[in-house]
Amino acid sequence: MTAFKIPLRQYVGLLRHYLRSQRSSIMGLAVLLVAGLAMQLVNPQLIRYFIDSAQQAETNEALWIAAALFIGVSLLQQLVTVAATYISENVGWIATNKLRGDVAEHCLRLDMTFHKSHTTGSIIERVDGDINALANFFSNFVITLASNLLLVVGILILLFREGWIVGAGMSVFVVLAIYAIQYIRKFAIPHWGKLRQISADFYGFLSEHLEGTEDTRANGASDFVMHKFFSLLRVWLPVRIRAFLGWAAMWITTLVVFAIGNAVAFALSAYLWRNGSITIGTVYMIFYYTELMAKPIEKIRTQMEDLQKADASIVRIRQLLDTEPAIRDGAGTPLPAGPLPVTLDDVTFAYESGKATLDGIDFRLEPGQVLGLLGRTGSGKTTLARLMLRFYDPQSGVIRLGDVPIRDAKLYDLRRRVGMVTQSIEIFQGTVRDNLTFYDSAISDERIVRVLGELGLDSWFRSLPDGLDSKLESGGGGLSAGEAQLLAFARVFLTDPGLVILDEASSRLDPATEQRLEAAVTKLLHGRTCIIIAHRLATVQRADCILILDNGRIAEFGNRETLAADPESRFSRMLEVGMEEVLA
Ligand code: ATP
Ligand code: MG
């Protein structure tokens, strides 16, 4: 058979791990399948008995018994099939759900580097598509394979009982049949692999562009996207046709092979019957067994095929599970309480080994100080903020909060003590409460309502139909830009961090909202160290220190008033020209 990509040990390991809790269901399943198998083997014997007694026609009683048995066994067989399907579906779903949970959890633990380099579509394909492909592997594979092999062996043994010629003839046929089907398969399989790859590409492409519909349309890229769409479809169709032709060829081969098998069975039985060595009932039985043989051979073939699909999925899931987060959690040195002092010591960072985005950044903020972080677009301001929260680690240099290098703190602790308000707030589908607390039930409703009030969101809050239980749309569709920003502030207030990083929205808001935001920022800064990535003069005026980034390097750092008073400084020139113009 075709070589598999993974060692047997891994299959066994996977099956063991995910089926451990379901031992009794699997035992039950095995018993049912063996019982079903036995009934399949018994039925032809009953028919033979029926035919032979009918010919002798002495009494009707034997016929009745044979008929009743045949019907009874057939019915029972159906019941067994239903029960076995039910159990195996359950086993498969419980196992794959467990795996799905593990993979999803793993994806959540992976960091920005991973999520930036994988489209949502491709992650969904892993968590859903690939794992679905494993359902059968978990629930059915071993048992079906074993029971169908047993069935083939059982049929052959029963045929040998009728005479070695019949047995030997059928054994040769089975070997040839499997060989022929395997041979034709070789031509069909590669196309299936290609088909799956193309469909993954297609859905990756689709989900990426559905997420960005608004941008696509706004930028007039619709034609380009449609062009790409159609070219993907054009590649898809011929591959699909070839894959299905391959499948049809396989199917026809199977039909022909079994027609030949039947012919052989007929020829042999006719010969033996003329000899007088078998009865007409036996002739029918041999014929019936030959027909029955098609089923397990077909099943074994589909199981092996399925294993190969599972194989590819297992490899991909393994790869995903083996991807280690680049950010390792710290040992757990506790961060100091209250406003946090910040020290950056010669910090250098580059995204994916490119040119340094931040180069030799070196500064210190006293507890409670406000830093205004300025710089043209692309100068590295947001990147600096990401480093503070350890979304990425710098390649060299150390960031300290108080005396604690942030690599030594627990990530959970770090992200609780450092709050970030980004340019675009992520609203997920859920209640207002969950959006604000991120499911932290330790935060009381009173506190949430108080914070909303402090931020001037009380009239918005009163307009909600179900208070904190009101649903928000994912993406924040129902919120104005100002409200979204204020909600982001509320999140920060609720965790009460010692350092706040505020990546100010560069878009302009209406004056009333501006005012509310101003008041909220004042509250936000109180008793906290703060880094504000500022786009507007009003915000800059709050800063104690100013840091101007230029191409990832510090162009200027110092006390705001000193810099403003120095006509030579970049900052004072910026103020002169109007910083909105310089930084826009
Ligand atoms: P803006 O004022 O427009 O928000 P910024 O100063 O915040 O700009 P950054 O977002 O820090 O700029 O980007 C700094 C540089 O790093 C840019 O050249 C940008 O292209 C690059 N960059 C940002 N994010 C990534 C990323 N995830 N992967 C690779 N490069 C990135
Ligand atoms: Mg930015």
TrEMBL record:
Pfam families: ABC_membrane, ABC_tran
Domain ABC transporter: start-end pairs: 342-576
InterPro entries: AAA+_ATPase, ABC1_TM_dom, ABC1_TM_sf, ABC_transporter-like_ATP-bd, ABC_transporter-like_CS, P-loop_NTPase, Type_1_exporter
Species the sequence originates in: Paenibacillus hemerocallicola
Membrane topology: Multi-pass membrane protein
SMART domains: AAA
Record flagged with keyword Cytoplasm: no
A GO CC annotation given for this chain: plasma membrane
SUPFAM superfamilies: ABC transporter transmembrane region (SSF90123), P-loop containing nucleoside triphosphate hydrolases (SSF52540)
Subcellular location: Cell membrane
Keyword flag Hydrolase: yes
Keyword annotations of the record: ATP-binding, Cell membrane, Hydrolase, Membrane, Nucleotide-binding, Protease, Thiol protease, Transmembrane, Transmembrane helix, Transport
Residue ranges annotated for the ABC transmembrane type-1 domain, each copy included: 28-309
CDD domains in the cross-refs: ABC_6TM_exporters
GO molecular function terms attached to this record: ABC-type oligopeptide transporter activity; ATP binding; ATP hydrolysis activity; cysteine-type peptidase activity
This protein's name: ABC transporter ATP-binding protein
Listed transmembrane segments: 24-42, 62-87, 133-158, 164-184, 244-265, 271-290
